[in-house]
Please model this.
Amino acid sequence: MNALAWHKLTFISDLHLQASQEATFELWRKSLQTLQTDALFILGDLFEVWVGDDILDAPQGDFERKCCDILHQVSQRIPVYWMVGNRDFLWGDKAAQRSGMHTLRDPCVLETVEGRWVLSHGDALCIADTAYQAFRQQVRSESWQLEFLSKPLEQRLQTARDLRAQSEALKQKQTHWVDVDNTAALSLLQAHQAHVLIHGHTHHPAVHALSETHSRWVLSDWDAQVHPPRAQWLTWQRGLGLSRQDLVT
Ligand code: LP5
Ligand code: MN
Model:
């Protein structure tokens, strides 16, 4: 992906948009309307869950339709690139078309005037979480997805709710959380002759030095319902480099 002509790039991830979290949705909607950038990159978990593109034709899909219409409007003004996360990996061509966003592979290389960068959601790099990696391998296979998507929508929504509850319960029980593996992150950068990794997923915004010349930038999640609200852009500007901007409600 070529970003050599651009002067300003904006990165976000982990908005976890859902109908029950109106404050986050509204903040996202309003900030997109006024966003000035050459390209917007959304690095996964834009939605809390995505159970299949057929939600867009279903009576239960008001919220998803609203989100896609907003994305479509923004895409008319700014190129929007996105990749799926561990919550919305069932996003398909139909939703892509309706939203106007360009879908990126994970990982994806971005050629900037400052060199090559790698963009990723980040979940695949949490390699010590072996239970999750096994689950991930299963649900990312085409055969599993075909079978799952053939189930009735209501059943898929229920499975997603069950898995969310299970995932939250597991996180409560854990005494430590599994971070992105720095060795794996460095290898990924080296394999792509890149020196900056930008990712989300962990909800622990920070910059980590992986070597003297390699670093990884972790995006923040968004939650406008907590105090102070969490909502942040990571911005790159030509000549100024990468910086974070907190949005206030
Ligand atoms: O998301 P988060 O931050 O809570 O935790 C993630 C990992 N969890 C997940 C699961 C999602 O939260 C819930 C699923 C989203 C719905 C997608 C659409 C519907 C598809 C349905 C798919 C069956 O990604 C969590 C990580 C954590 O990040 C930190 O990195 O630890 O991993 C887990 O909780 C997974 C468990 O460790 C393993 C679960 C095994 C469950 C096996 C059931 C197989 C069910 C098949 C159902 C038909
Ligand atoms: Mn995630």
Notes: Residues 153-173 form the longest helix (21 residues).
